[in-house]
Design goal:
mainly alpha, 2 domains, globular
Length: 278
């Protein structure tokens, strides 16, 4: 009997030597100890998170609320979810369908039992969900979006003033003092458009009784809205280019020039991305 050690590089025991051509068994995968650390690394883009931390979820809901004006229909709203996902991409690497499913899942949980929603000590998560659910409920209830028609005036609907004397007209009705003229509605619409609150601007215009004037001003408002969106998107594109070059100051300066609700949330996303990288 020989004491020579057996060659471990050989094919091993068995009647056949064909097993020597098999590839080596890969090592067992190692998993992160924390769900928040579970990510899929992609060298050509941001990491794709398998789960979101509470801070990530707060940022996502803030982005959802920042772009709620794009959520206009009872179903689909693909433009809305794509816009939200594009702003959340740098943080999570998620596509728009995954973002939509995640948000809708949390909305359903909130509707069933708000107490089961995971929240931070300040209660921000539940507050953001309440605001988002309220907007969705308004969109899903068309009757709330229709301006109620003014009922026909009756002698008792407005205060009456008695005229003393021999006049055959004993009383007259005072016109409603709260009625807003078309010119005032147009002025209020323009003020809202200057603030980039296009929902408010359109709401004011829809109260105009003159249909011809309504169509004209709606077209003007749409042109202003598209021009502002294009300007904002140009600032955002240039900011992203500066961010890729690690020029955070330029990116921050460009995002601060965005008019409307998007600017503050884009700045928040920028600071969050910078903190994660740093």
């Amino acid at each position: 009997m020989s004491d020579q050690a057996t060659d471990s590089s050989g094919p091993g025991p068995g009647p056949s030597s064909s097993s020597s051509s098999l590839p080596p068994i890969p090592p067992e995968p190692t998993w992160p100890t924390s769900a928040s650390e579970a990510i899929i690394q992609n060298p050509s883009g941001p990491p794709r998170l398998l789960s979101l931390t509470l801070s990530d979820q707060l940022v996502l809901l803030q982005i959802c609320l920042a772009h709620k004006s794009l959520y206009r229909k009872r179903r689909h709203n693909t433009d809305y979810w794509q816009r939200v996902a594009s702003h959340f991409w740098d943080i999570s690497g998620w596509g728009w369908t995954r973002v939509r499913n995640f948000v809708q899942y949390n909305i359903r949980r909130h509707r069933v039992n708000p107490c089961r929603v995971r929240d931070n000590p300040e209660g921000q998560m539940k507050q953001l969900l309440r605001e988002l659910v309220a907007h969705i409920d308004i969109v899903n209830t068309p009757v709330l979006r229709i301006q109620p028609q003014r009922p026909p005036l009756s002698p008792s609907s407005h205060p009456q003033h008695t005229i003393h004397g021999n006049s055959s007209a004993g009383t007259y009705s005072r016109p409603p003092s709260m009625e807003v003229s078309g010119q005032e509605l147009i002025a209020m619409s323009k003020e809202a458009a200057m603030r980039c609150d296009f929902d408010e601007a359109k709401s004011r215009l829809l109260q105009i009784s003159n249909k011809a004037a309504l169509e004209t001003h709606l077209e003007e408002l749409d042109m202003i809205r598209k021009a502002q969106i294009q300007t904002n998107e140009d600032f955002e594109r240039r900011a992203r280019e500066a961010e890729l070059k690690d020029d955070w100051q330029t990116a921050k300066s460009l995002l601060s020039r965005i008019v409307g609700d998007d600017g503050p949330f884009l700045l928040l996303t920028l600071e969050y991305s910078r903190a994660r990288i740093g």
